[in-house]
PTS sugar transporter subunit IIA
Amino acid sequence: MSTFSRFLDPQAIVLRAEADTPEAVIRLLGGKLQALGRVHPSFVEAVIAREATMPTGLPLGTAFNVAVPHTDPEHVIAPSLALATFDTPVVFSNMEDPDEKLPVRVVFLMALNERKRQIEMLQQIAETIQRPGAVEALAGARTVDEVWAALDQTSFA
């Protein structure tokens, strides 16, 4: 079973979402996780605060950049992921250079209750987004099945 299939609930996937800011994206996805009982009420504000000081935009050198917002484990009830794709990119700050703004088309919101698991999930996401065509396939997905197809090509148990 892949890491994605263990933690990514289909009800926490939003395809072709609309949001103007990273905060709006985090509220959208965090709200999904909260409705599923996966995170504490403090989760969304904690992620927003962390994103403001430690941004998570990942430059991929294409029009399909990714962001991976997350926060500390104490805000998490059950390990989870949420995913959103955007036809119109949302501007996130680059994690390596916060002054650089990146147009992001895919966001993975991580809610993990162990630091070790956070590192493993970041590695899994990195493997996936580095695979040629993977981010484009995610960004272009129109169904949850298309999301699974894009994600399942790279996974570990």
Q: What stands out?
A: The chain has six helices and five strands.
